[in-house]
Every structure is written in structure tokens, then in C-alpha cells.
Specification:
The protein has about 130 residues and is mainly alpha-helical. The protein is built from four helices and no strands. α1 runs antiparallel to α4, α2 runs parallel beside α4 and α3 packs antiparallel against α4.
Length: about 130
């Protein structure tokens, strides 16, 4: 029976994946929209920003957990004030993105195209993050 990898090794991998997704996920959405003939809309930009911002928060949390797993006592004290300050901008970005996606849906009679689906998926990912 194989043993599971240590928490330090797993967290080291997780925070790097999370950090890479800060750029990769929104860039993939923009690429798919442009490749399908769509345009970069306000909803896409706001949803991408919300998604990236929350992925940055997730990266910070994973780094904080990694430092705690390594036994660094001040890991929480160093990052917690920043995370608390990032809460309201994250909520504001999600609300703005939701309003933009809703407005695009109402004004553009939504169809299942990358133009509408990409911002909606990015917003969903942001909220889930």
C-alpha cells in the first residue's frame, strides 16, 4: 500500500497550480472567446478579474498553509491582515461581474456561445473559489 505524499509536498504543488491559474484560466477564456469570433466584453473582463483576484487569495492561503505545515509560527500573523482587507474588493468584483453578466444576458438574448458562456463560467469559478 502506497503512502500519501506529505502535506508539505502537496501544498507546494497546490499553491503553484493555483498561482499559475491566476493567469491561465482567464487567458484561456479570452482565447476561446476570440477564437470563436466573439469580442472582449465588460462581463468577460470583470469576470476574469474576479476569478484572478480570488485565485490570488487562494494562492496566499495555500502559501500560508504551507508555511504552517513547515512549522513557521508567524505564517498566519503575516498574511491574515492582508486577507481580511482583500475580502471586500473580492465581493465587489464578484457583484460587478454578476451585474455585467446579467446585463449582457438581458441585452443580448443569450445563446450558448463562448461570448456568453466564458464570462458566466469565470464568474462561477470566482464565486466557488
Amino acid at each position: 500500500m502506497a503512502t500519501s505524499p506529505s502535506p508539505v509536498r502537496r501544498l507546494t504543488t497546490y499553491w503553484k497550480l493555483e498561482a499559475g491559474n491566476v493567469v491561465f484560466v482567464p487567458a484561456l477564456a479570452v482565447y476561446l472567446v476570440l477564437k470563436s469570433g466573439g469580442r472582449i466584453s465588460t462581463a468577460l473582463v470583470l469576470s476574469g478579474l474576479a476569478c484572478s483576484f480570488l485565485l490570488v487569495i487562494g494562492t496566499i492561503v495555500l502559501r500560508m498553509m504551507l508555511r504552517r505545515a513547515r512549522g513557521e509560527v508567524t505564517a498566519t500573523a503575516d498574511w491574515l491582515p492582508l486577507l481580511i482587507r482583500m475580502r471586500w474588493p473580492a465581493i465587489g468584483l464578484c457583484v460587478a461581474a454578476a451585474v455585467a453578466v446579467g446585463a449582457e444576458w438581458i441585452n443580448g438574448s443569450p445563446e450558448l456561445s463562448a461570448q456568453f458562456v466564458a464570462p458566466a463560467v469565470l464568474l462561477l469559478l470566482a464565486v466557488l473559489e
